[in-house]
Design a protein that fits this description.
The chain is an alpha+beta fold and about 1050 residues long. Helix content is about 40%, strand content about 15%. Strands 1, 2, 3, 4, 5, 6, 7, 8, 9, 10, 11, 12 and 13 form a 13-stranded antiparallel sheet that branches. It has an eleven-stranded mixed sheet with strand order 15-14-26-25-24-16-23-22-19-21-20, with helices on both faces. The chain is elongated, with a radius of gyration of 36 Å. The termini are far apart. InterPro entries: P-loop_NTPase.
Length: about 1050
Amino acid sequence: MFKLFSRKTVVDQDKAATSFKETTSTHFSLFDAFLRGCAWISALSGKDLTSFCDLATCDDRSLITFKGDYVTLIKINGMQRLASREEIEMAANQLRQDMGGLFKNPGHAMQFTYISDPDASSFIQDNIAERRIIANALEADFEDIFSERERILTPHMRQERIWLALWTRTGCLSKPELTSANKRRKKIMASLPNMGDAQNPFLGSAEMSTVHEAFVGHVVKMFSDRGVILSPLPPKTALEIIRKEIYPETRQEKWAPIIPSDCPPDIIPDLEKPRDVSDVLWPPLREQIFKEDAFTPDFQSVRLGCLDWSPVDMTLVSETVEPFTELVTQLSPYRFPWRVTMHMEGVRPSYMVWKEHVSTLLRFSKNCAVYDAFQDLGKRRALREAVVKLRVSFATSSRAGNNEALRNHASRLEQGINGWGGAQATRQCGDPLDGTMSSVPGIALASTAPPTAAPLDKTLVMAPWARPAAPWEQGAALLRATDGRIVPYDPSGQGRDAVLDLFIAPSRRGKSMLANALLLATVLSTATLTDTGVQLPLIGKLDIGDATSGFIDLITHGLPKEHAHKAIYIPFEFKADHAYNIFDTEACCRKPLEYHKACLKNFLSLVCMPVDKVPFEGMDQIINAAIDTAYEMLSDEGTSTKPKPYRRRENILIDETLHKLDMQPEPHTTWWEIADYFGRMGDIRLARIATQHAVPVIEDLIQATQEERVRTSFGSNTPTSGHETGLDIFRRYITAFVRHYPTLNKPTRLDLGDARIIALDINRVAPEGAANERQTELMYLMGFQIISRNFFLDPAEADHTPIFVREIHRKRFREFRESFKRLECDEFQRTVKAPYIRQMFEEAARRAAKLNVKLGLTSQKITDFGDYLTQHSTARFILGAANPDEASELSSILGLSQAATSIVHNGLKGPNRDGTGSPLILQILVNQQMYEMSLLNMLGPIELWALSTHPEDVSLRRRVYEALGSSEARRRLARVFPKGSASDEINRRRNDMIRQGVDSTQVLGGVISQISREICDAVGVGALLREAA
């Protein structure tokens, strides 16, 4: 046998500093005397802190107690779907059916532990510290955003942890098995020296290990089948967690226990002839877990480390059993730390039978309820339903010495328990240390709470396994559950094989703000990490309106001036500066690459599509031939080519560069020669600009169709009943296109440079209405090609580029392929009657995972996305529905749970007026598991102003930005309008001006300019800025 370790007596008071008068104060009562007597007896008994831990050692999978019991600690990540009360009760009943046989006799036990920690400051600070590191690597300044997040998020967020300790006791073995195990252990111990109080790795047995592993595996599987994610922990991790829950202030410490799988410490004994070999073996787990003595300042609290704890025991189980989530909802507004451990043990059928007999004899008055309860248990036992012994221990804490806060916390906790379905609780738990240790997971199967015989399904309803699960433990974006729990979101897509995000909500529900916030999180996430260092991710946004302009402004003003061009917002118009040629190839390339050619064919097919949207017979072949012929005709390779000659003043930058290089082009010099010249120099940007002048424009297709090879193949084809040939029809449509869109028939002047974040606003060129459907389709197709032309490049295609730029292109293509890429499209409802656009996005979705492209689409209804995109989407951000019918349709299509459906109908009404954020339902597929969560996107006023999409707020922000600079402007706007919007003040002033007879067409601009001046001059609404200064 092993030697008992030295005891560390629990200190009750500093006797030297405590007078007799203080211990016999005027508050003395008979009850105090009784408690003091109990304390005196407890002191005489010598029960020390370490004696509350039964853990002796461990094997490679489980912890083992001194009695040979096996324990496994499991992390409960939560339930993948939101669950209503009815759904939790149904799942609990199914679990009772699956696991009831394990608890019909003693031997197995479950301990559910839930910890609510309102102090999320360290987590938030660590998260923001990571964001700062990435921002510094990008040389970007977002300090006002980071500082605000620390200030705003910390008071509204909390952490929670849920553990399940599974116990297998030696009582589950048969007598022969137990006898055999004991004999084997004694035989082994007889051959070993005296181990003293060191860990004994031979306390376990193969029989117990087999039974316990089967028990753990069965429980994990049963919960997993109900959508609850459980993660069994190895013994070393379990011991680390137990110690951190005893001493929460050590959560940031790096501590690891010494267990038999480690090398024992190399210690030389103090004695010349030690009595045992404990000094050279593994120290006791008890003494490793407890780092210092406990101190009991009074009869209801105990001090462990830096915290004072007060236990609360449940004395009467809820009259109306309510799910644990409802208790969390009741207590979360008060923001104090608390934890609970529910001990559930299998018992014999005769458990509490004697009390049943007594209740029969005393069946009158209040005892009738007790009698009825035993009758119900009897009926359940007759139906072979499991009845367990239930004990529930709570505890709360405060900083050491803050007695008032501790009393308030304990009182709040007791009141919350009493309001949980009619349960009853008490703070009179006897020894406060014993009561506090009863709520620690996994150290002992003991509790000061009175035992209750309870049906297994009812106890499972009360247990904390049905809390919503979160797919990530870390993430660049911090969302929060409605009860304040932190829910990290990783925009880099870790664990997501394919990313197709749908944002669904009517206008003004916060979907654009959420999309912008996630784009900012993407910039500040691991998506910036590449083989060539930290770089901005590749982001392309096809915008309708200026919803993304705030995000782009934030990035451009945050980056240093030399990198500000890497993020660009383009309000696209049909003007000379925005001229764009869809025929542009990669620098020095005479032909389009595969993906580019597919885009050209789609675009021209739409250009030549008749009104009834039935394509002309043979038009696809004509388009394909015209594209190939146009490139070959204007190339400088081969015979009978007509390359475009270089002309001065067509591009001033090229002219000036050639002049600086003292290069004088000959009269017959072609643009291809200029492009090749710069390509050989390694200046890929100028080579690309020269290439833009060398490639065909859409009007060149007309000449291409007049080439003999095209006329010979298609000249006699008449797809209509008239005499007009297919080539004539093609030329007619191309001529009409050139006449309507002259800026799309010129060499490209829209210079994106090496921008990595591009937001293209096509609102001005894609008007709504049936008469403009064709133009809208064309602009969507062209816009998609502009923002995504680098996203789908294949490094293998570099082999089809000229040899002198091949390695440059190969390096570019590889960097694009390996970089994080996100492609988004706003107002997707405009594509409902545009099959070519749908086809384009569906094709992108099919290829996206292979090419590491993340897609995000925003629209007002779920049906706007079509069947394919909806069914293959991997995340759905639902921020509302326009009416009950749409809410029901959305819930049915996406398969939302009953709880989520109720929230969609009643809880998604746009940003909360109290500033706590915009509510949403998130369905997301991570690691092949679908999660469903109810969340809030909470942003501070500075971030709200930075990312605002409301037109009036955007106009005000731009004026103040121009006057004061971005950082100071955001600070002032947030100070004057802390809700992130000035719409109420703008509307008030606008109405006043209209009543005064001011022209309504000039009112809005005048109001916004007036407010802007007041903020800049710190007068009027901006006067409070003087007070702040």
